[in-house]
Write a structure and sequence with these properties.
single chain; four-stranded mixed β-sheet; Rossmann fold; binds 2-acetamido-2-deoxy-beta-D-glucopyranose; alpha/beta; 4 domains
Length: 768
């Protein structure tokens, strides 16, 4: 079974221990009853559950079909139901999403991506041999699910936040500081944090609102430990920061001296009991007299170990295991970033008072209203409870330069934290612009923009791509030129002395990428009269028509499709973004044919009028591996549109290109199979004359725009007679050497990148 997207794995062995060795730690609870009790105790606030959304995605995605690119309308309906059930019993939900992968978790992230690659090739093997979707045991969550779930929840009126560090840390902090009813998720780290109760999403029944609560105090009782010992136990067992292997021999020594081993426990369970016993019997004895490093074989991993311990300390909490050494406490207290604060880090070290005076305005992507940035989150806060402690926030500079212990400095490579990287790369950035980017990131309105601006590092998880299908390149390459122009837009204001913009580190999964290093990807200058527009103009200005037009120009320039402006103008409102994406795809990928275009357009049109149940009941004659890849390629395109649209100051209404409005995996697949077999356009649009007219209009817009870029879309028959079925650089590069538009014709084609390039600088870039 493919693991959840959750970037965390939690404490090694603890899930199994709780499941089999110590089942009494799990208690069935009824959330409705708990909410009533909570309401009696805290009458001023609605009972709130903090949801670790990344852990919940796979449980929320209930549609039967998952392989065709996602059943987005069904999914949206399922989320709506989830929210409805909680709202009906007066429980408020607040959703947290992972906004960053921290450096020390990259290794784990990479390991999972490589593992998922193997799962994906098994999925395609199955599809090719059975022409069916594999069983749920091979389930793989549709691409883009994490991103679009944020927008879906926001559309459903839910408070949705994107983290600035590990989401689990922010979830645990929020739960503690806001007296939440509990945390809903699936991560044993929530048993370790000293915070509000932890409920399992996997055990939740929406009908009864019953689930399993995993009880921290019962765990402590079983192990004869105190709550404050749990982080120590977690680090000795291995967690996301301290690798499991580091203390293996230590754990075996604990096991061999652990005398009260009971035969019916499994070995893994015994190890946990033995380590806990060592903490309770041996370490407690010397606590306060000896330092941890005198009692445990920390060796060169001392700094890492303390970092692991500190990762469980929520703002305001201290550990009795590090209190002896006040220096350590200061340094090791995790640098705390308040996700609700609208002041970016760069301003904290400057003059916070003066920065608060300034009321910058930005355009709210949903309402289109101009909003003062500092008011956004406060006004939504219904209770007057403090959201976060500010006192623990030390200036990062102090923490790094003055109080850094020797060990930490020596192992700087291991412990280097992301805030360090951030401070370097935001040098020269406009604080006002950064503030907007940060607010939009935290409020889950934008995608990747803040990461690009602050850490110049982004990642993209696995996509259902068939490594054996040589005719379709990976989405990582197809959309790369778009990202490169976005980089130049977002980083153009940075002046760090060098004459070219620095590269952005991309961790993108594609066939043949061992992910040992990120790809270093250079920004690519946009082809726009007057050069790259200023972000201040695009982001901060009112909804004046000229500025709105400039935003749209910038968006088109990011796709290098300024030539398509008139064609897109003709397209009816909600399909503009959809057609823009199709034009881009067809210009970039010459193996796409007219039958593919028909299928894409017909599914988008037919989707509009279809009730969800009809989409649910749709049966596919068989499943085709190429159509599977096209489905995920298209959805990745929609996520790219989200990035571009947010970088350009929201020229388009996001809701118009949310997948539940323009894409349904099964419906696309059905149209694809019909189209490939040569069925007529009338058949594809279900013999509806109105739809046929709309179909012709959209098709004509896409084809005309493609012709301007010297791309003639032909039918598969015609295509086959000229090609061997694989792309060949010679045969295809010849027909697109100049733009039909009198432009220089140096279109950045995905292929020009050279696949798998570790670091490259396109020729085009050098010329500018
Ligand atoms: C965006 O579209 C949605 C749904 O069509 C609509 O409710 C909303 O008002 C639109 N926003 C703007 C700014 O046009
Ligand atoms: C044809 O499509 C239009 C637009 O989606 C819809 O309103 C109409 O009901 C459809 N007509 C039939 C006969 O299904």
């Amino acid at each position: 079974m493919v693991l959840p997207l959750c970037s965390v794995m939690g404490v090694r062995g603890l899930q199994g221990f709780v499941g089999s060795t110590c089942p009494h730690i799990r208690t069935v609870v009824n959330l409705r009853e708990l909410a009533e009790q909570h309401q009696n105790k805290h009458p001023r606030c609605p009972p709130t559950i903090v949801v670790d959304a990344m852990c919940c995605l796979r449980y929320w995605y209930t549609p039967e079909s998952w392989v065709c690119g996602g059943q987005w309308r069904e999914y949206f309906t399922a989320l709506q139901e989830f929210v409805r059930v909680f709202t009906a019993v007066g429980i408020k939900l607040i959703f947290f999403f992972d906004g960053m992968v921290e450096q020390n978790k990259r290794e784990e992230w990479v390991k999972r991506r490589l593992k998922n690659n193997k799962e994906i090739s098994r999925i395609f093997h199955y599809i090719r041999s059975h022409r069916q979707q594999p069983g749920r045991n091979m389930f793989f969550i549709p691409s883009g699910l994490a991103i679009f779930t944020r927008f879906a929840l926001k559309a459903l009126g839910q408070e949705t936040l994107c983290s600035l560090q590990e989401a689990d840390y922010e979830v645990a902090s929020y739960g503690l500081q806001n007296d939440c009813l509990g945390i809903l998720g699936e991560d044993t780290d929530y048993l370790i944090y000293d915070t509000c109760p932890y409920f399992s999403i996997s055990e939740l029944s929406l009908d009864t609102l019953e689930t399993v609560m995993l009880c921290r105090d019962k765990l402590c009782e079983t192990l004869a430990l105190r709550r404050a010992d749990l982080p120590l136990l977690a680090c000795l067992l291995g967690n996301d920061i301290v690798p499991e292997g580091l203390f293996e021999s230590f754990r075996y020594r604990c096991l061999s001296s652990y005398t009260s081993v009971k035969g019916n426990f499994n070995k893994r369970g015994n190890i946990i009991l033995a380590v806990a016993d060592h903490i309770a019997k041996v370490l407690h004895l010397y606590q306060g007299e000896k330092k941890l490093e005198e009692m445990l074989p920390l060796g060169p991993n001392k700094a890492l170990f303390y970092k692991g311990l500190a990762s469980y300390l929520l703002p305001g909490q201290e550990s009795p295991w590090v209190f002896q050494n006040p220096e350590d406490v200061i340094t090791l207290n995790k640098e705390y970033i308040d996700p609700k604060s609208t002041i970016p880090e760069v301003l904290v070290t400057a003059d916070p008072e003066s920065s608060k005076q300034e009321v910058a305005m930005y355009i709210d992507p949903e309402s289109g209203q101009e909003i003062p940035m500092c008011a956004g989150s406060e006004s939504k806060q219904e209770c007057s409870i403090p959201v976060y402690h500010e006192s623990k926030r030390a200036s990062p500079r102090e923490a790094d330069l003055e109080c850094e212990p020797e060990a930490e400095r020596k192992h700087g490579d291991l412990t280097k934290s992301q805030p360090e990287v951030k401070r370097q790369s935001t040098m020269g950035s406009d604080p006002e612009i950064l503030m907007v980017a940060r607010t939009q990131h935290v409020q889950a309105e934008s995608y990747l923009v803040y990461n690009i601006m602050t850490s110049r590092e982004i990642e993209c998880s696995n996509t259902l791509e068939d490594a054996l299908d040589q005719a379709l390149p990976s989405q990582a390459f197809i959309y790369r030129p778009v990202r490169q122009r976005v980089y130049s837009l977002l980083l153009s204001h940075i002046t760090d002395g060098a004459d070219s913009f620095p590269a952005v580190k991309e961790w993108f999964v594609y066939a043949g990428n061992p992910l040992q290093h990120p790809d270093f990807v250079r920004p690519l200058q946009m082809n726009m009269p007057g050069g790259t527009p200023n972000l201040k103009l695009l982001w901060l200005n009112r909804q004046e028509p000229e500025v709105q037009a400039q935003r749209l120009d910038t968006l088109l320039a990011c796709f290098d499709l300024s030539s398509a402006r008139e064609e897109l103008q003709e397209v009816e409102g909600p399909f503009k973004a959809f057609c823009c994406l199709l034009i881009y795809l067809f210009v970039q990928v010459d193996t796409l044919c007219m039958e593919d275009l028909h299928a894409f357009i017909a599914q988008a049109l037919c989707l509009q009028g279809k009730p969800t149940v009809q989409l649910m009941d749709l049966q596919l004659e068989y499943v085709d591996s190429r159509a599977v890849q096209l489905g995920s390629l298209f959805v990745r395109g929609l996520t790219t549109l989200v990035l571009v649209n947010s970088a350009c100051g929201f020229p388009w209404n996001m809701s118009e290109f949310m997948p539940w409005n323009v894409f349904d995996g099964k419906l696309f697949h059905q149209k694809y199979l019909l189209s490939e077999k040569g069925h007529s356009v009338e058949a594809l649009v279900e013999q509806n004359r109105t739809q046929l007219t709309r179909f012709q209009a959209l098709k004509s817009a896409v084809c005309k725009a493609c012709v301007k870029e010297n791309r003639r879309i032909t039918s598969r028959q015609a295509w086959r007679s000229h090609h061997t079925g694989r792309w060949e650089p010679e045969s295809s590069s010849s027909h697109r050497t100049s733009s039909g538009h009198g432009r220089s014709g140096h279109r950045q084609h995905w292929r020009d990148q050279g696949s798998g390039s570790r670091s490259y600088e396109p020729d085009q870039w050098r010329r500018y």
